[in-house]
Write a structure and sequence with these properties.
With 399 residues, the protein is an alpha/beta fold. Helices cover 29% and strands 31% of the residues. It is built from 11 helices and 13 strands. Helix 8 crosses helix 9. The mean pLDDT is 85.
Length: 399
């Protein structure tokens, strides 16, 4: 027993005499990236990458004026792998991309195909599959040099836009990540990614003085639509309004906003607890996509002059159901015409079993023959604080 303790003591003394070493990197030695943008030069076919580097001084409480919250660096190279090497020629700190918030690519870049981009991305040991991927139809050089109000980091702002829009209207799906595009590379299913644009015809103010301007509606980044990808290539786009219907039919949101016109008066409805069920069946030898949507409605605004009663509430609910069915059919037919397999019908038919399905599986693009059978059921459970609207001449001193 004594020999064991003696060995432990000798070992401890030996270790204490060794020189300590570690591979820790101090934060002030890193160039922390918050947002990345990628495009390709049409003339030279060079890869162009924009890195937004976070400026720690802008967030320091000890600094009276931190200046710009981010600095945008631009690098060009014939290959993606050389971009990181070239960053050492300009950056005084080590490029750190482990925690950036979002990635933006141009519409032209997306239409050329993003397989090489995805292959490069997936090879990185520090890749983050939960990263949100955006498409922009604005000049990327201006998008990457835009100051954003309230949220100083544009990369974080874009993530917040997705979260807020998803909760408020259901027009953006949370499945807008790099991993969602990768998962559909070998599928006929369309991937939908958000489109971000630079609002305003004038170039953005490239000075920190833009933070002192009270009107921030112009020269700001906003969501404007959704890009459709077949495998790795962008094949089309739809509006945010259309994307809201798509997300509801796919069951990728539990909220939805809809304004209806009832006898010339507008009623704004907020749908919550939206539930969607779908299955593919055969009817007289033809494939039919059956979708059932249920929702609970809350009246957010009511321009009707009449008092809410059971009959009126029923009319509102029925009009909501009818409008959802009509607009959803329009979107579905648009997708079939353009051969956008937005509902993964090709894969659904592919994995069906039975003699009748075998016949369809032998046909090219049999999924385009699929009809939509949509059922919508809604109930109004929140009518607001008043059911009898204020009328002209009442309560304002007029007799």
């Amino acid at each position: 027993m004594k020999s064991v303790f003696l060995k432990l003591i000798v070992g401890g003394l030996t270790i204490s005499c060794l020189t300590g070493c570690w591979d820790r990197v101090e934060i002030n030695e890193l160039a922390v990236v918050g947002l990345v943008g990628s495009e390709m030069d049409k003339k030279t076919h060079e890869q162009i990458v924009y890195y937004q580097i976070v400026n720690p001084e802008a967030f320091s409480s000890s600094s009276a004026s931190g200046g710009s919250p981010v600095f945008t660096y631009t690098f060009r190279s014939q290959t993606k792998g050389a971009i990181g090497q070239k960053s050492s020629y300009m950056l005084p700190r080590k490029l750190f991309t482990d925690h950036y918030q979002s990635h933006i690519v141009t519409e032209a870049y997306a239409k050329e195909g993003m397989r090489s981009f995805l292959n490069y991305y997936e090879r990185q040991f520090n890749r983050r599959s939960s990263l949100y991927l955006f498409i922009t139809d604005s000049p990327l050089s201006e998008v990457m040099k835009t100051y954003t109000p309230l949220e100083k980091l544009p990369g974080r702002l874009l993530r917040s836009l997705i979260s807020n829009t998803h909760k408020a209207t259901g027009q953006i799906s949370l499945k807008s990540r790099v991993k969602d595009l990768v998962e559909n590379l070998d599928s006929s299913k369309v991937t939908v990614l958000p489109i971000v644009s630079l609002k305003g015809a004038k170039p953005p103010d490239h000075t920190t003085g833009s933070f002192e301007n009270i009107d921030v509606s112009e020269s700001n980044l906003i969501l404007t639509g959704a890009a459709l990808f077949n495998k790795d290539r962008m094949v089309g786009k739809i509006t945010l309004w259309e994307n809201g219907y798509y997300n509801m039919l796919k069951g990728e949101t539990d909220t939805f906003f809809q304004s209806i016109n009832l006898k010339g008066s507008f009623v704004d409805l907020y749908a919550n607890k939206v539930k969607t069920k779908q299955h593919l069946s055969l009817v007289n030898g033809e494939p039919v996509l059956n979708i059932e949507v249920t929702a609970q409605l809350a009246i957010r605004n009511n321009n009707q002059r009449e008092k809410l009663d059971w009959d009126n509430v029923s009319q509102i609910s029925n009009q909501f159901n009818q409008q959802i069915i009509e607009n959803s059919h329009n979107l579905y037919n648009k997708a079939i015409r353009n051969k956008w397999d937005m509902f993964g019908l090709g894969d659904m038919i592919k994995y069906k079993r039975g003699r009748a399905w075998n016949f369809l599986q032998k046909q090219s693009e049999a999924w385009t023959q699929t009809k939509l059978q949509l059922t919508v059921r809604s109930t109004i459970n929140d009518v607001g604080e008043i059911i009898d609207p204020f009328k002209e001449g009442e309560g304002n001193g007029t007799e």
